[in-house]
Write a structure and sequence with these properties.
- There is one protein chain.
- With 324 residues, the protein is α+β, with helices and mostly antiparallel strands.
- It contains ten helices and seven strands.
- It has helices at residues 2-7, 9-28, 33-70, 78-81, 88-143, 146-167, 182-192, 194-200, 217-233, 291-301; strands at 177-181, 202-207, 212-216, 240-248, 252-259, 305-311, 315-323.
- A hairpin with a 3-residue loop joins strand 4 (240-248) and strand 5 (252-259).
- The two termini are 51 Å apart.
């Protein structure tokens, strides 16, 4: 209310001066003082009523505009819903808002087109590069060169990571949600990493995977692949082990992946899902800080929860929670 009165201060001043001059003239004409007093009261009441009604109308309009803005998902379309104002001052603000909105919408369209072109280029690149990778992998099989095959697998995983990173903003375009058994998902994820397991002599233990979840199979396998790759990277013991188990709860199914690697410092745990964070006690030459970031981002898009706990030099445990 105070801000509104400050906005109308010039109107109040000019009105007060007008009334005062009128009363002075009437006084000089020897009008009755009682009449002058009631005239002053009447003018004051009229001014007060005008300000009150004007304030309530302005408040109603402001509230309605705020509700319209809050109700919009794409708030940059608000100028299309606002009515053209009548006052000259508001007309200028309306013109500025329309111009700014149009410029912003044009910029958004330009950026969306650039991103779409970038995504299409990445997808084309990934599909093209997988052909020579498959040929090199076949060559390594024929030559029985496990070291080369191991390196090709790492390169293939990085290429896939690039593809999923490019698609991570538009996962809804590639959804295929269905009911699937955890054992099927885990089997595919383990088969994708069999070269790693063989090369590093890693023991895999599975437990209670005959439970069903409702999710997108392809995206979840990618998430599992990132988690398993992280576990393999940071194995530092002679007896390497990864334990995978399902936990069937009332409102959710929890998939738990635990390794006996080097672990993560407690001070690093809150930041492991940040983009580019590689930690302070891990072998950074093997880390990009993208894998777990992508896992968290895709889990959010799939309406899944992901948690991580660790004890340095003992274990790291990742839990992916599928709501029922």
């Amino acid at each position: 209310m105070i801000a509104y009165v400050e906005e109308k201060i010039w109107l109040i001043l000019w009105y007060s001066i007008f009334v005062l001059l009128q009363l002075v003239i009437l006084f000089l004409l020897d009008m009755d003082t009682t009449f002058l007093f009631f005239s002053w009261v009447l003018y004051s009441v009229l001014l007060f009523l005008y300000l009150l009604v004007s304030y309530l109308v302005a408040g109603f309009k402001n509230k309605r505009i705020k509700e319209m803005v809050d109700g919009l998902d794409e708030k940059y379309f608000i100028s299309e819903l606002l009515k053209r104002p009548r006052s000259i001052e508001c007309e200028a603000y309306y013109y500025a808002l329309k111009s700014a909105t149009k410029a912003m919408n044009d910029k958004i369209t330009e950026l969306e087109n650039k991103y779409q072109n970038y995504e299409e280029y990445i997808e084309t690149f990934v599909h093209e590069v997988k052909t020579p990778l498959a040929a090199i992998s076949l060559y390594s099989d024929n030559k029985k060169d496990q070291e080369l095959k191991y390196e090709v697998k790492k390169l293939d995983d990085l290429v896939e990571q690039v593809l999923f990173y490019a698609r991570s903003e538009n996962t809804e375009k590639d959804y295929f949600v269905k009911r699937i058994k955890l054992s099927e998902i885990i089997h595919q994820a383990l088969m994708r990493n069999k070269e790693y397991f063989l090369a590093n002599n890693i023991v895999i233990e599975v437990e209670n995977l005959d439970v069903f979840v409702v999710t997108d199979e392809k995206w979840v396998i990618f998430i599992l692949n990132q988690v398993i790759n992280n576990s393999i990277k940071y194995m530092d013991k002679l007896e390497k082990k990864i334990q995978i188990r399902g936990i069937d709860k009332k409102n959710s199914v929890i998939l738990e992946i635990k390794d006996n690697g080097c672990g993560i410092k407690g001070s690093d745990l809150p930041r492991v899902f940040e983009k580019g964070f590689t930690g302070s006690n891990r072998r950074k030459e093997h880390s990009t800080g993208i894998g777990l970031y992508l896992c968290k981002k895709l889990c959010n898009r799939l309406n899944l929860d992901i948690e991580i706990e660790s004890v340095v030099k003992q274990y790291t445990r990742v839990r992916i929670i599928f709501p029922n």
